[in-house]
């Protein structure tokens, strides 16, 4: 299915979150900010999506989730394989220790205010060459 014309130029975020209600809430926040979201429930699914979707500009990942790796490990793999993709790691249970976050990645503790989530994603994508995160009318 092709996206509607109005979303073609919107930034695409890959969200990795295993809790359906949290994921739904964050998707609503980001779509309201004119950010298109591709969803994955764990890092394994997200890794496959990232390989198939060159339009992904940033990854928003939770730390604690099922699968073969946690959000910190996934963030480091994203940074190694896709250095142009912004990385934002979030958690309500744990914070990053030494070496957990890759270079130029950010971390936020849950709960996160909607404006703070959008601002953090704008920050991690600031250096991405595919355009800006300015909302379109």
Automatic annotation (TrEMBL):
Q: Where is the signal peptide?
A: none
Q: Could you list this entry's UniProt keywords, alphabetically sorted.
A: Phosphoprotein, Transcription, Transcription regulation
Does the entry feature the keyword Transcription, yes or no?
yes
UniProt entry tagged with the keyword Transcription regulation:
yes
One biological process term from GO is: phosphorelay signal transduction system
One of the Pfam families matching this protein, by short name: Response_reg
Transmembrane stretches in the record are none
Domain Response regulatory: residue ranges: 12-125
Task: Provide the positions where the record notes the PTM 4-aspartylphosphate.
Answer: 62
Task: Fetch the SUPFAM superfamilies from UniProt.
Answer: CheY-like
Q: Which InterPro entries match?
A: Bact_response_regulator (IPR050595), CheY-like_superfamily (IPR011006), Sig_transdc_resp-reg_receiver (IPR001789)
* Cited PANTHER family: RESPONSE REGULATORY DOMAIN-CONTAINING PROTEIN (PTHR44591:SF3), STRESS RESPONSE REGULATOR PROTEIN 1 (PTHR44591)
What name is this protein filed under?
Answer: Response regulator receiver protein
Q: Which organism is it from?
A: Microvirga ossetica
């Amino acid at each position: 299915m092709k996206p509607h014309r109005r979303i073609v130029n919107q930034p695409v975020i890959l969200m990795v979150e295993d809790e359906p209600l949290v994921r739904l809430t964050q998707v609503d926040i980001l779509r309201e900010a004119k950010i298109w979201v591709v969803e994955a429930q764990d890092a394994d699914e997200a890794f496959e999506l990232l390989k198939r979707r060159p339009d992904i500009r940033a990854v928003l990942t939770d730390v604690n989730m099922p699968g073969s790796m946690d959000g910190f490990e996934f963030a480091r793999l994203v940074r190694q394989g896709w250095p142009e993709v912004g990385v934002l790691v979030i958690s309500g249970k744990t914070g990053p220790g030494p070496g957990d976050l890759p270079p130029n990645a950010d971390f936020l503790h849950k709960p996160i205010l909607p404006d703070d989530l959008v601002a953090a994603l704008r920050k991690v994508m600031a250096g991405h060459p595919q355009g800006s995160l300015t909302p379109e009318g």
